C-alpha cells in the first residue's frame, strides 16, 4: 500500500524545475555574448593565444575579413579594403588626435596593432602570450621601430 502525502508531486515538480533553472543559469555564465561589431571583437579576443591568432590574423578575425599578412596591410591596405590616414617615421610621431577606434598601425610591414581608444592599442604578440594590450619594446629594435602607417577600414 502506497501512501501519498498531499502535494508531494508538486514538490517534486518544483524541485525538477528549480534544478533545471540552476543548470541553465550556470551554463549561460560560461558563454560570452557574440560581439556586435569590429571594435567589440577586438576587445573580446583578448587572451587568445598567439599560436591561434598572430597579429594580422587577430585584426582580420575581429574584422571578419579574409586573412592579410602584415606585409599586405603595409603594401596594399589589406587588399585595398583599408586606406592610409597617416604615414609617419616612428610610432611616437603618430598624431593621436586623428585616430579613430579600430584604426590599424602597421610597423614597417612586419607587425600590426589595433587602436581601441583612450590611447590604448591591442595586438597579438608572442612576448605577452597572444592578444592583449600592446607593450612596445623597451630597447631599440624589434617590430616597433621605424616607419609606421595608420590604416582605416573603408567600411568601418
Provide structural commentary:
The mean pLDDT is 84. The protein has helices spanning 8-29, 38-44, 55-63, 70-80, and strands spanning 82-88, 104-107, 111-117, 120-125, 130-133, 148-153. It has a single domain (38-153), classed as endopeptidase domain like (from Nostoc punctiforme) (endopeptidase fold (from Nostoc punctiforme), Alpha-Beta Complex), CATH 3.90.1720. The chain has a six-stranded antiparallel β-sheet with strand order 1-6-2-3-4-5. The protein is built from four helices and six strands, in the order H-H-H-H-E-E-E-E-E-E. The radius of gyration is 24 Å and the shape is elongated. The N and C termini lie far apart (74 Å).
Helix content estimate = 25-40%
Mean pLDDT reading: 84
Count the beta strands: 6
The overall number of domains is 1
**What portion of the residues fall into strands of 2 or more residues?**
15-25%
Instruction: Return the CATH class.
Output: Alpha Beta
CATH architecture annotation name: Alpha-Beta Complex
Regions with pLDDT < 50 over 5+ consecutive residues?
none
Categorize the overall geometry.
Answer: elongated
> Superfamily at the CATH H level?
endopeptidase domain like (from Nostoc punctiforme)
- Quote the distance from N terminus to C terminus: 74 Å
Quote the CATH topology: endopeptidase fold (from Nostoc punctiforme)
Give the C-alpha Rg: 24 Å
* Helical stretch tally: 4
Give the biggest sheet: 6 strands, antiparallel
Amino acid at each position: 500500500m502506497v501512501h501519498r502525502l498531499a502535494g508531494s508531486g508538486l514538490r517534486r515538480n518544483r524541485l525538477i524545475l528549480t534544478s533545471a533553472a540552476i543548470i541553465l543559469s550556470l551554463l549561460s555564465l560560461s558563454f560570452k555574448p557574440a560581439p556586435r561589431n569590429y571594435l567589440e571583437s577586438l576587445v573580446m579576443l583578448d587572451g587568445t593565444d598567439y599560436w591561434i591568432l598572430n597579429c594580422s590574423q587577430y585584426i582580420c578575425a575581429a574584422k571578419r575579413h579574409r586573412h592579410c599578412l602584415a606585409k599586405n596591410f603595409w603594401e596594399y591596405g589589406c587588399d585595398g579594403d583599408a586606406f592610409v590616414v597617416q604615414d609617419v617615421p616612428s610610432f611616437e610621431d603618430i598624431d593621436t588626435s586623428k585616430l579613430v577606434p579600430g584604426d590599424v598601425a602597421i610597423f614597417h610591414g612586419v607587425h600590426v596593432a589595433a587602436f581601441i581608444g583612450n590611447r590604448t592599442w591591442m595586438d597579438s604578440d608572442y612576448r605577452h602570450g597572444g592578444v592583449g594590450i600592446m607593450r612596445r619594446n623597451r630597447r631599440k629594435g624589434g617590430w616597433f621601430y621605424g616607419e609606421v602607417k595608420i590604416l582605416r577600414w573603408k567600411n568601418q
